[in-house]
Amino acid sequence: MSIGELERNLIQRVCVGDIVARAAAHYPDKVGIIDGQLRLTYRHFNEVVNRTGHALLSLGLNHQDRVAIASRNTWEFLAIYFACAKAGLIAMPVNLGLKPAEIAYCLRDSNAKVLLAETVLSHAVAQVAPLAPDLEHVIWLRSGSDVPAVEKTYGAFESLLTAGNPAEVERVVSDRDVIQLLYTSGTTSMPKGVLTSHVAVVMTAFSAALRQKSDPNDVVMHVLPLFHCAQLNSLAIPAFVNGATSVILPSFDVNRVAEELEQHRVSSVLLLPMMYQALLSHPGVQRRNYSSVRYAIYAMAPMPESRISEIQALFPNAKVLLGSGQTEFTPPTTFQFPEHQQTKAASWGPAAPSVWVEIMDDHGRLLPRGETGEIVYRGPNAMEGYWNQPEKTLEAFHHGWFHSGDVGYMDDEGVVWFTDRKKDMVKTGGENVASLEVERKLLEHPDVAEAAVVGLPHDRWGEAVTGLVILKEGRSPSEQDIIAYCKTTLADFKVPKRIHFVTEFPRTGTGKIQKHELRAHFKTMYQEKSPS
Predict the structure, then answer these.
(1) Which H helix or E strand runs over 35?
(2) Distances from the Cα of 301 to the Cα of 263, 293, 354, angstroms
(3) What pairing do the DSSP bridges indicate for beta strands 66-70 and 90-93?
C-alpha cells in the first residue's frame, strides 16, 4: 500500500484554511460571524469558503498566484482569505489607506491576476485596474444586480459562489507556502510587500488565542481594518481557532461600536487610542453595560495612565492591555500580562509564546538586560521575505535575527520597554530624545487629546524637539502652558522647543500617525525662529 502526496499533505500539514474546516467540524451550528443582519454558522461559512476556493481555481489560477482583495471589513473578505489558504493561493488584501497610484503599484508589483473588490470602491478600481497588466478579472462584492462597468470585470461574487462546489478544497499546501502578501505603508518609498507563510499565521493564531485565553463563548469585535495585520492576524484568525463569534463592523463608527459592544456582549475588542477617546466622549456611553468585555486591547500609539483608568472604568471586568508587533513578524510579537496592567502599563509586555526577543547593538552583539539597543526577533512568525526585494530581506535578517527598527530594552522579568523607532529618535544638542517619552508627557496634560513629537532642523540644537498637539474640544491652553507642563518632570533637553496646535494628523489606513509627513510639512516653517 502506498500513500499519495496529497493524502500525506492533508494528514500532516499546517494550513490556515484548515482552521475553518476544523471549526466547522467542532462547532457546525454555532454562529461564527455576525455582519450587520447576517448570521453565518461555522458550517455555512466553511461551505462558502469552499465554494469560493473552487471558483477561484476554476478561473485558471495556479499554485501561489496572487488574489487581491479590496474591501472594507466584510464576511466576504474573510471567506476569500480562507479560500485562498485552502486553494494554495496567496491572498493580497489591499490597504485602502493607500493612494490610487500606490494601489496600482501593489497590483503591478504582485502580478495579481484577480481582484475582488467592493462595489463602493468602483471609482478607485476603475483608476487602478488598467494600470495592472497581469490583472485578468475584477469580481465585485455586494454588487447586487448592478455590476460596475469597469475594465476587466468578470461579474458578481454571488455568481461566482453559485458556480462553486461546497465540497472541501483539497490541494497540496506546504507549511512554508505563502498565504498572505501585505504591503506596508510606504514612508520614503513605495510600499514593501511582506510574504507570510501558513506556519507563521497559524503559530500566531494559536499564540494569540493562548495569551488571550479565548474559548467558544467569546465574542470578538472587528473594527480595525482586516487588511491590516493587527486585526487580521491578532484577532480575526485566532477567533476561529476556538470557535468564537466574530462581530464585523465595516469601519469605525462610534455610534455603532457603542451599541454593538453591548448588544452582542462582546468579550474582546481592539481599538486605537483615538477610538477609545471617541468612545469615552460619546453621549450616554457611561450608562451602557459593558461587563462582558474581558480584553480591551489597544495598539499603534501610547496612552496616558489617566486614559487607561477611564477605559478600565468603562469596561469594569476588562484588562486594558497593549499588543505590539509589525507586519514582518505576524503580530503580536509582545503582549502585556494582566498583572503588569498597573505596574508596567507603559511597557510592551513580554514576548508572545512563539516569539524570542532580544536586544542587539549596532555590531550584532546581544545586550544584557537593562541595556538599550535594537529590538530583534526569532521565531516561526517571521516573514518569508519581501516580495521582489531580496536585498531588503537580507538586511532585515542580518546577524541571524529579524531587525525590527525599534529601539528599547528588556527588564529582569523579560518585559520589553519600547523607547522609539530608530528613525523617530530626536537628536538634539548631542542628546537622543525618545519621541514616545515626550508624547506620553503631552498626553498627560488634561487639555490634550492626541500628540506627536518630531525633530525639526535647528542651527543650534541640530534638531529641536517639537510637539504637535490636538486639543480636547473646548480647551484652549497656550503654547507656553504646554511647555511649562512638560518642564515639571522632563529633563530640559527633552522639553519641546515649540508646540504646534493642529486639528488632525496625517495617518496610514490603519490610523498610525505619519510622522514623515509632519516633518516634511513643518520643516520649512521651523528654522532659527524656534525658541532656544
Answers:
(1) strand 31-35
(2) 28, 21, 24
(3) parallel
Residue 532: is its pLDDT beyond 90? Answer: no
Cis amide bond preceding 332, omega within 30: yes
CA 15, CA 37: separation in Å to the nearest integer? Answer: 31
Which grid coordinates belong to 477? 491652553
φ, ψ of residue 274 in degrees (nearest 5): -65, -30
Residue with cell 526569532: 378
DSSP string, 424-438: G-EEETTEEE-HHHH
Domains along the chain with CATH numbers: 5-198 (3.40.50.12780), 425-523 (3.30.300.30)
Q: pLDDT band at residue 530, thresholds of 50, 70 and 90?
A: very low
CB-CB contact of 82 with 51 (8 Å): no
What single-letter DSSP state applies at residue 421?
E
Residue range 324-339, pLDDT digits in tens = 999 999 999 999 888 8
Residue indicated by cell numbers 454593538: 260
Lookup: cell for 205: 493564531
CB 67, CB 80: distance < 8 Å = yes
**Average pLDDT of the segment spanning 280-301:** 93
pTM (2 d.p.):
0.86
* pLDDT > 60? residue 377: yes
Sheet holding 416-421, edge to edge: 356-360, 373-378, 402-410, 416-421
Please classify residue 476 by burial: count the beta carbons closer than 10 Å to its beta carbon, then call 0-12 exposed, 13-18 middle and 19+ buried.
exposed
Using 50, 70 and 90 to split pLDDT, how confident is the model at 273?
Answer: confident
With cell 507603559, the residue in question is 346
> Cell digits for 231?
486585526
Q: How far is it between the farthest Cα atoms of the chain?
A: 83
Confidence band of 189 (pLDDT split at 50, 70, 90): low
Per-residue pLDDT averaged across 151-179, rounded?
A: 94
Residue 144: in which H helix or E strand, if any? none
